[in-house]
Amino acid sequence: MTQTVTDFEGQGAISVKGLVKRFGTVEVLKNIDVEIKKGEVVCVIGPSGSGKTTMLRCVNLLEQPTAGKIIVNGFDVTDSECDIDAMRRSIGMVFQQFNLFPHLTVLQNLTIAQTSVLKRSKSDAEKEARHNLERVGMAHKEGAYPPQLSGGQQQRIAIARSLSMNPALMLFDEPTSALDPELVGEVLAVMKGLAQEGMTMMVVTHEMAFARDVADRVIFMDGGYVVEEGTAEQVIGNPQHERTKSFMFRVLNPTQVEEGDEFPAPPVGGVEMVKPLALDPNLGSGQAGY
Amino acid sequence: MTKRQRTTFIRSGQYAIIVVIIALLAIVGHWNDFRLQFLDFHSMGQILPRVLKTGLINTLLYTVMAFIFGLVVGLIVALMRMSEVRLYRWIATVYVELLRGLPTLLVLFLLNYAIPTLFGPSSKIFSNFYLLVTVGLGSVAAAYMSETIRAGVQAVPKGQMEAARTLGMSRGQAMRLVILPQAFRIIIPPMTNEIILLIKDSSLVYALSFTATQYDLTYLTQTAASGGISGIAATASPLLLAGIAYLVVTLPLSQAVRALERKQAKRR
């Protein structure tokens, strides 16, 4: 995707400073600082309700930040003068529920924003769309309607739809959480391919194997704070904070959590892996822990 | 008595009651008079060309005009009602509550008096009968349709708007290209209901002053039935003809929508 990154100043990077988000009286994000450099793949992990998804949604203003400063691809998102539509064009977003347009064919799903937003000609848009369907292995389904396809296929098409806008940066909001376990692998494989091509990516996920294998950096969030961040090896393999340790233990040893036993103590001497994590996402190890 | 026998017994009783009611009606009713009133095929044949060429055509014309007006205004009102601008929401709410709360007949009567008073009785444009029909029937239809459209838009999952917006579409583009096409699919059945109601409501245009060539089905046949058309005997038969004409339009409409729904269900 190098050809398009040049379209944007500040190129595929996120800078979040002092981000606070309140829903009514509930403070979901409490002073978040996150930096993502060009070409970096960052996985955000943490228990549900920790604010991961909210943080991701603040980056492209699907949620309005209460306080703080966010700069994405050179756009000051928190400035009221910011051209939100232009900012969003530079960011691809993949949702947990795919959110393909069910009334359009697969090909039309990929061309509609190209023709209406980027003002590309129909043939240029279709060329770009077919190229991206090829990348995610869905070229043979261009005439199908989304509801006819499996969740894994739909999510790959959703990725291709975002790519067709030539974004400088991709956000993934739990892209495999709504999938049947055997369909997770095909989506992770596409994402891994993107990472290897140098796409800047921020991925909210529960896939520890993916985080270990692909992420340059892992951020652990809990209770509206960034608790710990570092390489996958550090955060997943050798967490330092109690909360990270306890989360990792529960995620990696799901069968050892008994009912009513909400916070089992991690074993002495750090977290032992129960089994070596599958590093090849094609194996589709399912959602670790959940 | 077993349960089965009891059911059979009750069922037979119900049939017996129905048979008795029919028999009573057959005995008590003045069927010969009824036949003369309603099945006067001679006057039916006399009025039939006018029922088709004037009545039916006008009824359809008024329905289509009012529907198009209602759809356009209804869409605007629906969008205003979902707007972030408080004033728009307020105007739309007042519009819907007002026009939904008044009888259509009263709206037409009011229009019939208000327009000549406001713009002068000889105003060619504002006193145009077709304009009054369109605005009168259409503005009431718009109030109902706007609520239907709003429900349809709100039935489209929130993620659709978010996906469209994250692809860089403006709110308007997302509405036009993504949300409304899905919403209109959802509201086809209730919209058909609106059309059928509108077909029937078009019989209220007699509240406006119109000429013989502008008569709708109901008014035309009622005029004939009351002896208002020379050469045609005053019987109720033309009204029966009008009833058949309405059904000829409304029944296929229901059928077509059912077929459309089946076709959509298949594609899902």
Task: Compose a concise summary of this entry.
The complex is a heterodimer of chains A (290) and B (268). With 290 residues, chain A is an alpha/beta fold.
Task: Give an overview in words.
The complex is a heterodimer of chains A (290) and B (268). The longest helix of chain A is centred in the middle third of the chain and has 16 residues, at 181-196. The model of chain A is unreliable at 1-10 and 275-290 (pLDDT under 50). The two termini of chain A are 33 Å apart. Chain A has helices at 2-5, 52-59, 84-89, 106-116, 122-135, 151-163, 181-196, 208-214, 232-237, 242-252, and strands at residues 14-23, 26-36, 41-45, 67-72, 75-76, 91-94, 169-173, 200-204, 217-222, 225-230. By secondary structure, chain A is an alpha/beta fold. In chain A, strand 9 and strand 10 (225-230) form a beta hairpin. Chain B is mostly helical. Chain B has helices at residues 3-28, 31-38, 41-81, 86-101, 104-119, 129-155, 158-166, 171-186, 188-201, 217-225, 237-267. The longest helix of chain B has 41 residues, at 41-81. Chain B is flat, with a radius of gyration of 25 Å. The mean pLDDT of chain B is 91. At the A-B interface, helix 3, strand 6, helix 4 and helix 6 of A face helix 7 and helix 8 of B.
